[in-house]
Amino acid sequence: MDFFTNTNILFFLAAYLIGSIPFGSILAKTFAGVDITAAGSKSIGATNVLRVVKETNPKLAKKLGLATVILDALKGTLVLLVAMYYGLSESTLWGVAILAVLGHCYSIYLGLEGGKGVATGLGVYLVLIPIPTIIGAVVWIVCAKVLKISSLSSLLGLLAVVISASFLNNGLNVGSNIPMYIIAFIIIYKHIPNIIRMIKGEEKKVI
């Protein structure tokens, strides 16, 4: 079996490389002329795009923030849809999903730095566990509007996905919930600095 012609391996590589594309950084540099990897939280996610660009152009910041969320989500969604078209197994699809999220969080193009994985996680969850993900997205949006704290809203939305999926998709068609938990763990791990700031009451609100 040739390593570079194995379909599963090719999709795993594609998932990581596509997941690694730092859309937030690209958009901010292209349209606002700022380097978000050197400002704010230095994350490539939508929240940091919004926060950094907002300092000079509030109207543009909202557009770029929304575009970043959509593109980061699509990184996971599109590669999974193509993998499904090629008839890959459910377990392979979950492997693709995990690698897409890892790519976003530890981008090969940014020296293994990256974002928090929320939007990309949302994108892969939406394909593989759609109903729980919609529930989580609603919780995320409502909490964001009420609490105004992006990290907390994201974590509450993630918790809603995991809890609802545990009831609605027991086993995830692969005999275990572990792949879903791995993605959730990656996202929570990347949020540890935010969690520490929340405990200290220092986490900033997004207004």
Largest sheet: none
Number of structural units classed as domains: 1
Beginning-to-end CA distance, first to last residue: 54 Å
Structural class: mainly alpha
In round numbers, the mean pLDDT is 87
Function: Catalyzes the transfer of an acyl group from acyl-phosphate (acyl-PO(4)) to glycerol-3-phosphate (G3P) to form lysophosphatidic acid (LPA). This enzyme utilizes acyl-phosphate as fatty acyl donor, but not acyl-CoA or acyl-ACP.
GO molecular function: acyl-phosphate glycerol-3-phosphate acyltransferase activity
Subcellular location: Cell membrane
Protein name: Glycerol-3-phosphate acyltransferase
How does this structure look, described?
With 207 residues, this protein is an all-alpha fold. The protein has one domain (3-200). 71% of the residues lie in helices and 0% in strands. The chain is built from ten helices and no strands. The longest helix is centred in the middle third of the chain and has 28 residues, at 58-85.
